[in-house]
Structure formats: structure tokens, C-alpha cells
Amino acid sequence: MITIKQILDQKGRECYSVNSSINVLNALEIMAEKHIGILLVRNDLGNPVGMFSERDFVRKSVTFKETALSRCIEEFMSHSLFGIGIDKTIQDAMEIISEKHIRHLLVCENKNVAGIISITDIINTLIREQNATIKSLNDYIYGTTYW
Ligand SMILES: NC(=O)c1ccc[n+]([C@@H]2O[C@H](COP(=O)([O-])OP(=O)(O)OC[C@H]3O[C@@H](n4cnc5c(N)ncnc54)[C@H](O)[C@@H]3O)[C@@H](O)[C@H]2O)c1
């Protein structure tokens, strides 16, 4: 079974985070620059206190309207943090994501954030795994690969 560590080895361990005091526009600029849909939010001590996602922005903007961009992300972020241990499996990750209706999971190692994975990372890993299985079966049956 594929482990979360194997997914991180493929995609890297970077987990972009911001301080909870920055404003929404600054957070969106970072997300646009890094091509990511979510940021880990940390307090002044560097401890994780929430997540700020594209969806948080969309939902809360309806409330705050034209003042949304200048507001602090603390007013927009979700306070729930969903994580998974680095030694858990891809199946475990899919179960949490499905059960909690979320798209990202923080990866934890020795009580620290070791990275972040999204639904896309999981799908890409499964596609690679399936292609490798098909190739090895093809090699076994025909003694060669046809693509
Ligand atoms: N059409 C739509 O409605 C819609 C909605 C959501 C996402 N998308 C698109 O789907 C694609 C993938 O979306 P996704 O759900 O996988 O999420 P995502 O866009 O947040 O993830 C993209 C990649 O960035 C990484 N990433 C995300 N946040 C990170 C962070 N804080 N630090 C380090 N790495 C981080 C993820 O692990 C993943 O590898 C994107 O191209 C996105 O634009 C489309």
C-alpha cells in the first residue's frame, strides 16, 4: 500500500504558511503566485491555528463584500486542522478526505508539519501506480510493452 511519505517524496515537503495577522489580499497574492488553493495559518509563536482556502474566501466574501480584501485572514480561515501521519496509507487519506468533505490534509511527523497533500496529489499517485501495474502485467503477458 502506498504511504503518505511516498506521496511527499514525489511532490516535496513544502507547506506554505502565513501569519494569522496578514490581510486577505496578501494571502490571495501568495496563493496565486504559488499556484495553491490553501494556506496553513500560524500564530505569532509559529503554531498552526487554521487553514485559509479559496473556498473560505468565496464563502466569507459574500458576508464582508467590498471590505473583504483588506480584512485579516483570521476572520476568513477555518479553525479546523485535518492531518494525517506520514506513515499512514493513501487509503487512510482518502477515507479522511471523503468523510470530512475536505480537499487537503496536513502531513504530520513527530508532531510537526512535514508537508501537505491535496486530492490531486492522491489522484496523480494512483494514476502513476495503475500505469505501473498495467505496464508490468503487459510485460509479464507479452514479454514487452506496446506503448
Ligand atoms: N474548477 C474548479 O472548481 C476547481 C476547484 C478547485 C481546484 N481546481 C483546480 O484543481 C487543481 C488542483 O486542486 P487541488 O484541489 O488539488 O488543490 P491545490 O490547487 O491547492 O493543490 C495543487 C498542488 O499544490 C499543493 N499545495 C496546496 N496548498 C499548498 C501549500 N499551502 N503548501 C504547499 N503545497 C500546497 C498541493 O499539494 C498540490 O500538489 C488546481 O489546478 C485547481 O486550480 C479547480
Question: What number is the mean pLDDT?
Answer: 95
User: Spans with pLDDT under 50 lasting ≥5 residues?
Assistant: none
The CATH homologous superfamily corresponds to CBS-domain
User: Looking at the structure, what is the overall shape?
Assistant: elongated
Number of domains: 1
Q: How much of the residues is beta strand, in percent? A: 15-25%
User: What strand order characterises the main sheet?
Assistant: 1-2-3
Bound molecules: nicotinamide-adenine-dinucleotide
How far apart are the first and last residues' alpha carbons, in Å?
Answer: 26 Å
Explain what this protein looks like in three dimensions.
With 147 residues, this protein is of the alpha/beta class. It has a single domain (4-142), classed as CBS-domain (Roll). It has five helices and six strands. The strands form two sheets. A three-stranded mixed β-sheet has the order 1-2-3. Strands 4-5-6 form a three-stranded mixed β-sheet. A hairpin with a 2-residue loop joins strand 5 and strand 6. The longest helix is centred in the C-terminal third of the chain and has 24 residues, at 119-142. The protein is elongated, with a radius of gyration of 19 Å. It starts with a helix and ends in a 5-residue tail after the last helix. The mean pLDDT is 95. The protein binds nicotinamide-adenine-dinucleotide. Nicotinamide-adenine-dinucleotide binds at residues 11, 14-16, 36-40, 103, 116-121.
